[in-house]
TrEMBL record:
Residues 49-168, 191-305 form the PBP domain. Residues 34-53 have a biased composition (Low complexity). It comes from Slackia equolifaciens. Residues 34-62 are annotated as: Disordered. The keyword Signal applies. Gene3D superfamilies: Periplasmic binding protein-like II. This is Phosphate ABC transporter substrate-binding protein. It comes from the Bacteria. Keywords: Signal. It holds the Pfam family PBP_like_2.
Amino acid sequence: MIKAKKTKLLALALAAVCAFGMFALAGCSGGSSDSGSADSSSSESTTEGPSGAISVISREDGSGTRGAFTELFGVVDDNDVDLTTTSAVITNSTAVMMTTVAGDPNAIGYISLGSMDDSVKGVEIDGVAPSAEGVKDGSYKVSRPFNVVTGAEVSDLAQDFLNYIMSSDGQAIIEEEGYVSVSENGAYEPSSDSLSGTVSVAGSSSVTPVMEALADAYMAVNPDVTIEVNQSDSSTGVQNAIEGVCDLGMASRELKDSETSQGVSATVIAQDGIAIIVNNDNPISALTSDQVKEIFLGNVTDWSELA
């Protein structure tokens, strides 16, 4: 009986020693593996470029940002026909574009420079970082105008709001919002002591944020006036101005001859850059104009091709 007890105790002791040894080995092995994995991951992110199929994100037909982008980067043929790859994912606003790129590590897109935030990363183009200063001094070439579109007849109230936008007061707001001012007019002076009524503004989603800021500031000075800002796209904004559906259209591109021939004209209220954006986890921080062009034409389809 005593011998059996001793044998059982010895077996338990040996089992405990074996278990401890296996635990120690596992711990050492696991620590080494984790460390190696971290080192490997760190090495890949610092010494290798991105890889994987590029997710091209573009804007919808009618978008002024898309029109300006394709023209500036040459993603058009000799007849100005848009050649954006058919595999591109189409978004219908600046906000949706940013959300889409922020949610896809392999995505690339483009937005109004003034709309940039830290949810996405703006890359250098031809060695120049996207910035309002770069647009202003001409070093950042990817820029376009923000236009207010008016018909042959403009109401006194709509004209007064436009006068405010072009005044030093309005242009200061444009600068505060991250865009480049274009007018050197003096301070705003109301055209009447008793302004009242409604002005409807419609069009570009890129122009909308700064237009809303301008509208708020104008209504603070003229509390009996309502400025209604309706977001769509540049082509819709121009067409609405042509048809008289709105008082002022918004377009983030130059007007076409086919549009001006219908009696509308454009007033440039600001200059804006177009930022080429990628996911924050993408190590790419700079591209050339040609690389961007080839990506959106569909000729470069994998990030590894840019290494």
